Amino acid sequence: MSDGAFCHYCRRARCECPDYLRKIATEFRAGLLADTPSDLMCYVVTLPLSGLFRFMGYEAELIEGEVDLAGDDPGSHIAGHYWIRIGNQIIDPTADQFNRYGLRMPPVYIGKLPKEYRALVPEGQNRGSMNQARRRVKAP
Ligand SMILES: [Zn+2]
Predict the structure, then answer these.
(1) How far is the CA of 61 from the centre of ligand 1 (A)?
(2) Strand order in the sheet with 78-86
(3) Nearest to 5 by CA among 61, 71, 52, 73
(4) What is the domain partition of the chain in residue ranges?
(5) Beta pairing, strands 60-68 & 109-111
(6) Structure pTM?
(7) What is the rounded distance in angstroms from the CA atom of residue 35 to the CA atom of residue 134?
(8) Ligand 1 centre and the CA of 57: distance in Å?
């Protein structure tokens, strides 16, 4: 990783401070999407962002999963989604796209896997490869 990539908060390299990961993801999303809504943009943002995190030295995994959008009727409205895992946190740089379905997520979510989220491939087996791009699921 580059010598310059030290956490702005704790000064450590490859730190997993939520505030630091959020800063990177928020700036990356802003650079890529500008004022474009995040709807349907999960893969567009998470694929290169996961590459940036790996470039910085993180073991970042691109996760292909599903989000259950039907709070009162679980399983009745499932959306394909992508997010990133680093350690025991996920980074979802387009989390706000589900708010119109009743979820209450910030634009960039950092934290434990929300209860509505489910990974389709076991942890550690996602690679963000072009194969994954080819079999990507339809975004909501
Ligand atoms: Zn830190």
Answers:
(1) 19
(2) 109-111, 89-92, 78-86, 60-68, 117-119
(3) 52
(4) 18-134
(5) unpaired
(6) 0.83
(7) 27
(8) 14
Using the mean position of ligand 1's atoms as its centre, give its distance from the Cα of residue 83 in Å.
21
In the reported structure, the alpha carbon of residue 89 is separated from the centroid of ligand 1 by a whole-number distance in angstroms of 14
Distance 52 CA to ligand 1 centre (A): 17
Both tokens of residue 95? Answer: 């989390």
Sign of CA dihedral 8, 11, 16, 19: negative
- State pLDDT tens for residues 37-51: 999 999 999 999 999
Rounded to whole angstroms, the Cα distance separating 47 from 57 reads: 16
**How many A from CA of 13 to the centre of ligand 1?**
8
Query: What is the b/e burial string over 50-70, where b = at least 16 CB atoms within 10 angstroms of the residue's CB?
Result: beebbebebebbbbbbbbbbe
Ion ligand 1: residue ranges with CB closer than 5 A: 7, 9-10, 15, 17, 20
Least confident of 19-28, 38-47, 122-131: 122-131
